[in-house]
Amino acid sequence: MRQLIDDAFLRQLSRLRFITKGRRQGRLSGTHTSPRAGVSLEFADYRPYSPGDDFRYVDWNVYGRLDRVLVKRFVHESDLPIYLLVDFSASMGLGAPMKAFYAARLSAALAYLGLRGLDRVGAYPFSDHLAPSSVPPRHGMRQMGHILRALLDVRPEGETSIDQAVTELFERTRESGLVVIVSDFLSPNGYRQGIARLRHRGDESIVIQVLDRSEVNPAGTGTTQFVDIESNRQTVLTVGRGTLSAYEERFRAHQEELRAFLLERGIPFFVGTTDRPVERLIHEDLRRGGVLK
User: Fold this and answer.
1) Cβ burial, residue 148 (10 Å; 0-12/13-18/19+)
2) Report field, pTM of the whole predicted structure over 0.85
3) How far apart (Å, rounded) are the C-alpha atoms in residues 184 and 254?
4) Could you tell me if 27 and 176 are in contact, meaning their C-beta atoms sit under 8 angstroms apart?
């Protein structure tokens, strides 16, 4: 794979940050706020001084004006674990650029944003199992190097199982957080059970589907041998306008089913095609969709 990120790409990300429901609700714990009182950079309100309070947090300006000893209260800031589940099954090897490269570049950008926000970020490449190169969530920009290696060391192969990937993620993690699933979602092995389990554990989820343009708008007619890249099953078909129309109808039904399933559960859903720059997906779609700001 080519280089995933460079300085120019990072400069484009410099002003972005994650927004999560957990942060807004104070449920999850960086820069993601919780209503617990504590020391942080974000002022909340005042309370009367009590014996034993730290004098550093007394507002002496207020004391001079009102002759009252008040202590500043701050919004406690705690870190949010971010789990990046990135599909590297065989079908992700299709396209130019490969869907796998597009997904890895997107995931590297999201990892960088999470680490800049002082969150713990982990990367979990998967097919029908999590890859051995998976990296558990940790703080700090040194973690970025580990994540890049995890994404670069995997080659697309095997079948896809999001359900199994989530099962194995739960075996390795106990803390709910933000789970970003990056996949083509063109899998017979299912995604419903896995996403339902994330919801049950209390994880917040974001789904980003990566597709090649030929999967959305296929072209070409004539007698063609088709090979399922994941199962290696082969079929010879004579492709005409009717065949293309039938494919388009089934693909549209698949997309509508996936979108409806996620919408019903309040899960943000985005689609990126590999002929559209990752930067546009991030700056336009993810910002407009309330994931980044």
Assistant:
1) buried
2) no
3) 12
4) no
The single residue listed with the structure tokens 């927004």 is 19
Phi/psi zone of residue 123: left (φ > 0), alpha (ψ -120 to 50 degrees), beta? beta
Given 3-state DSSP classes, what are the helix, strand and coil percentages for the chain, each rounded to the nearest 5?
Answer: 40, 25, 35
Conformation bin of residue 100: beta by default, left when phi > 0, alpha when psi is -120 to 50: alpha
Domains identified in the chain and CATH numbers = 7-22+80-213+255-288 (3.40.50.410), 31-78 (no CATH)
| Confidence class for position 77, pLDDT limits 50, 70, 90 | low
Helices 99-116 & 142-152 angle (0-180, nearest 10): 170
What is the C-alpha separation between 111 and 166, in angstroms, rounded? 19
- How many Å apart are CA 212 and CA 28, to the nearest integer? 35
What's the length of the chain?
Answer: 293
Cis peptide upstream of residue 97 (ω within 30 degrees of 0): yes
Between CA 7 and CA 34 the distance in angstroms is: 33
Which one-letter amino acid corresponds to residue 69? V
255 pLDDT band, cuts 50/70/90, is very high
Name residue 172's beta-bridge partners: none
Residue 266: phi and psi, rounded to 5, are 70, 30
Residue 256: count of CB within 10 angstroms of its CB: 10
pLDDT range class, residue 35, cuts 50, 70, 90: very low
